Structure formats: C-alpha cells, structure tokens
Amino acid sequence: MTYTELTQRIESAGHGLCVGIDPDPSKLPFGVGGLAEFCIGVVDATAHLAVAYKPNFAFFEALGRPGWDALDAVTQHLHGLSSKPFLIADAKRGDIGNTASRYAQGILDVMGYDAITVAPYMGRDSVEPFMRQGKWVVGLGLTSNPGADDLQQLALSDGRRVYEAVADCYLDWGTPQNLMVVAGATRPEALSALRDRMPETFFLVPGVGAQGGSAEEVVRHGAFRGTPGMGLLVNASRSIMYASSGTDWQRRAAESAESLAAEIRSAYRA
Amino acid sequence: MTYTELTQRIESAGHGLCVGIDPDPSKLPFGVGGLAEFCIGVVDATAHLAVAYKPNFAFFEALGRPGWDALDAVTQHLHGLSSKPFLIADAKRGDIGNTASRYAQGILDVMGYDAITVAPYMGRDSVEPFMRQGKWVVGLGLTSNPGADDLQQLALSDGRRVYEAVADCYLDWGTPQNLMVVAGATRPEALSALRDRMPETFFLVPGVGAQGGSAEEVVRHGAFRGTPGMGLLVNASRSIMYASSGTDWQRRAAESAESLAAEIRSAYRA
Questions:
Q1: What is the DSSP code (8-state) at residue A29?
Q2: Which residues of B are part of the catalytic machinery?
Q3: What is the model's pTM?
Q4: What is the distance between the alpha carbons of residues B9 and B35, in angstroms, rounded to a whole number?
Q5: How far apart (Å, rounded) are the C-alpha atoms in residues B78 and A154?
Q6: B158 vs A143, A159, B155, B251, CA distance in Å?
Q7: Where are the domains of chain B?
Q8: How far apart are CA B51 and CA B10, in angstroms?
Q9: For residue A53, which of A229, A241, A223 has the smallest C-alpha distance?
Q10: Which helix (H) or strand (E) holds B11?
Q11: Taking chain B (270 residues) in consecutive chunks of 10 residues, what is each chunk's mean pLDDT?
C-alpha cells in the first residue's frame, strides 16, 4: 500500500486505528474452538473500523505448527476483507542483508503483508532489504516496555539519546513513504521529541489501552504538526480482543474498537 | 544443555564448530529434490564433527508454509542425532516480555532448541523471558555485517561504545551459564575488547569462512584467556553447505567442516 493510499484510508476513517491480533490460547472466549476462529472473529467484528491489522507473530509461533497454520488462515482471511486494511506483520525481524532478504521474501512477498516490524541493532543492511515497492518497514524506535530505558535512552557523546540516533538512521535509510517508526504511547514527552525530529514519518503507536497510554495524549504529542488528523497508526490489542470472555466477545470487541476510534477522532478535532 | 555439558562437548571435540543451516532453494546441489533433504544431507555429512547446529530461520520462513514444514523436518532430524549437538535457533527474536515469552515457548519449548539468538534493543524484559532452565540466550553483541557500525559502534557519553553497554547489560541480565553473545569474526580487535569485558561468557562467532574471518584470529582474540580451547562456538554456514554444487556435495561439506575444525584445533594448540 502506498503512502497516498494509507493517508486516504486514515482521512476517510478519521482515525488510524490498528487492531493488534495477539491470540492467547488460554484466554479464548467461551465457546470458541481455536486460535484462528478467535482471530477471524475479532477481525470480522472490527473490519468496518480498523484501518490496519497487526498480527503478532509470536503468539502464533508459540504453538509450533498448529500456530503457523492458524497464522496462515488469519492472513488469508485478512487478504479477503473487502475493506482492504493495511497489514502489518509484527515479527520484529532483524538480521544481516542476506538473511533479512529472506525474511522480507517470506513475510512481504509470500505472505503478502504490507509492512513488517524490524529491529535496528544490526544497522542499515539489516533494514534496507525490507524496503520494497509498495511495502513498509516499521522500525523499532522508542518502545513502551519497561526495558526500553536499558538501551534506547542511553546518552551518546554527541548529546543524542540512542533512540534519537536510531531515528536519524531511519531518516537516512528510508523515506516517509516506505518507513514508519514504532513510538510507544506511554512516554508522551519522548513521543513529542520524536515527532519534532521526524516531522513526516508515520508512527505506529502501541501501548494505548491495556498498557496505559491515552489516545488523546498520543494524538496531541504524536500527530503531524501541520496536518491535523494524520501521521499515526494507533494500535490496541488486548483491550479489543479480550473485551469479554463471554459469548458477547465479538460485540464487546467491536464496542471497544469503536470507543477507541471515537476517542482518536475527537482528539483530532480538539 | 548445561554449561558443563557444552564445555565437555567442546573439550572432547577440541573445537566448538557450529554448522549454520542457511538453505537457499536456488542453490540446491545437483540431484537434490528439496530444502529439507539438502539440510538433512549437510547435517548427516557433518554430524561426526559438529558440536552445534544453527538453522537460520529466515531461510525457511522465506518460503512460507513449505519452509516451515522443512524447518520442522530438519529440527526433528537434529533431535534424532546420536551425537546430541547443541541446537541454536538463529531467529533473532526480540519483543516485550509478554510477547518474548511466546517466542521462547515456541522455539525453546515446543521446537526444543537449546538456544535462540535475541536482539537487545528493547531491553531487559525482552531478553529475560528466554532464560529458562537448561536453555540459553544468544544475545546480539558485535555483529560482522557492514551495518554493525551504524549503532553498535556509537560512542556513549560515559566513554563506552553501544555494543559495550549492551555487553554490560548482558552481564547484568544473565550469567555465563545461560547467556552467550554473538561476536563477529571480522573485527579481531573488538572481539578481543569484548573478551576482556566478558571473560567467562561464551561467544558465538559468525563470519568465519565466507565472510572472511580467520579461525586462528578468532581463537587468539576470542577464546577464554585462562582456559585454552574454550569459550567459542565458531559458526560456518555457506563455506560448508555450498562447498560443492555437484554430486559430491556431502563429501565436500564434510571436508570443509573437517578443515575448519582442524584449523580451530590447531589454533587452540598454538
């Protein structure tokens, strides 16, 4: 999907809601038989709203082959949606060029995802192979977990933090048309600093909902400065998928997604 | 596999040869029908020598489901070897705790690998979930690719390089009994500095052979200072797997592995 197409989807929706698909087999709602059925049910309940979907590969790989089969089924179902959402493989891959090309082939070409999350530690040649026509790299920038401070916040001798140096690398390696950055919702000031540094780069923002970030703060600190309502894909996973463990799980997932979408829309208007 | 068991394997072999399994479907030797057959053939040709095997998950994932099937077949075959090698999943995973636990479950528990390569960028809670009884984290430290300089070599305000800060994190997060570090063969001086910093930590050293590192230099700079012949798993992939594209591919793979093992052994004696 191109930058223009993605922008149009977000404009038309009035939000950039991304539904994360993190299926936990120990938390299937009442009456649901399997992982794929659960994920597909969540997708169907939210497809009228979601601009993007982000299956978290770990939750599928955890199960070995049955998990791969479920991921395959969910991926096929996502490709069949008439809403044609932006599809992000949350796989956090990162390896040297030769190997990175293989991950790109598997996830972007064979599985057909629009984007893949990528770790920056190995440098330019571990990220560039994912940049393909109409495809996107989603580089880890500033994450929302406690361990983010261990490396990302270290001070460099030139005055930058490590995550700022990573941001500068991304600006050098890619363009706003083929590279977006993971920027956690739980650190609004840092999100704001990152936006100043990368004025035209899309942010994929996890950490809203279950992890405690607020959609209003994310929009205020993270949206494009000059283009209200643009520049963000806001991800929620658990708060949507596990909105209810009863037989009303699909309705409740839809309500949770609607509520977050409304919150983002109203923050954009504020 | 415990530290003591791994140490005994290496002592008894006189080297720590790790055979990397990076199967390229466009480079199958003459007469070989498929990816799994090729990998299993390389494994069988080298099983009398290899202390460890390291399947590179990207090369399998590149093919989608047929690749996962091949990885599964190769993994089963490795588990069946009477030599009981140390099995490293070269998967470069790294994600927040919740998700990292899933990758650990899939690769260490379900697939039964002894170790997994892990990226450090997200910090402690992205690495700790991989530390399990009898299992190993193989953390990216100093890699052998051109892009390694982009982040790993940046200078911090406290005088350390980023890769040194990462090494210090690893010393804090794990122990030499459950954490080893990827340290590339192509930078002998840096390998030496890393050894000084981590005197008792095993290094997994890629970059010997096809990438141009020398086994003699790796041993001289990277082995434990006080215990000659210990502290290294030296990986070679392409130079063994693709030693010949003719019908003699298994014999040539064995010869290439034997030659590298001999080189390491003689470096240890020097």
A1: P
A2: 92
A3: 0.94
A4: 28
A5: 41
A6: 23, 11, 8, 52
A7: 3-269
A8: 7
A9: A241
A10: helix B3-13
A11: 96 96 95 95 98 97 92 98 97 89 94 97 95 95 92 97 97 97 90 96 88 86 91 96 96 97 91
CA-based nearest residue to B140, from B182, B78, B99: B182
Q: What is the largest CA-CA distance in chain A?
A: 57
Residues of A in contact with B96 (CB under 8 A): 143-145, 147
Question: For residue B47, what is the DSSP state?
Answer: T
Pick the CATH number of B3-269 from 3.40.50.1370, 2.102.10.10, 1.25.40.620, 3.20.20.70: 3.20.20.70
Distance in angstroms (rounded) separating the CA atoms of residues B229 and B32: 37
Tokens of B219: 């041993």
* Chain B: closest CA distance from residue A177 (Å): 22
Interface of B with A in 92-131 (CB under 8 A): 92-100, 102-103, 105-107, 110-111, 119-127
8 Å CB contact of A62 and B96 = no
Long-range contacts formed by A224-231: CB under 8 A, 24+ apart: A224/A195, A224/A199, A224/A200, A225/A195, A225/A199, A226/A199, A228/A268, A229/A10, A229/A11, A229/A14, A229/A268, A230/A7, A230/A10, A230/A11, A231/A195, A231/A200, A231/A201, A231/A202, A231/A203
Which residues in chain B are closer than 8 Å to A145, comparing Cβ atoms? 96-97, 122-123, 125-126
ipTM score above 0.90: yes
Q: Which of A119, A66, A65 is nearest to A96 (CA)?
A: A119
**Would an 8 Å CB–CB cutoff place A7 in contact with chain B?**
no
